[in-house]
Model the fold of this input.
Amino acid sequence: MKSNQSNIIKSCECGSTEFITELNSYDVYELINGKLEFQHSEIIDDEINFFCRNCSKELVNADS
Ligand SMILES: [Zn+2]
Done:
């Protein structure tokens, strides 16, 4: 089965071709004595999602 077409990713509907993954990670802060103190970073790395850098719309791959 040829899969070339299923790997084509379309640009965002807003026209941007730049995508980010920042929404996939978190810096966790805890409020301690009235101050936000950094605890740790959480990265959801089992599934990487891409978001448009311009409008933050989630990238949706072209249908196979
Ligand atoms: Zn966009």
Notes: The CA atoms of residues 21 and 49 lie 6 Å apart. DSSP finds no helices and four strands in the chain. The radius of gyration is 17 Å.
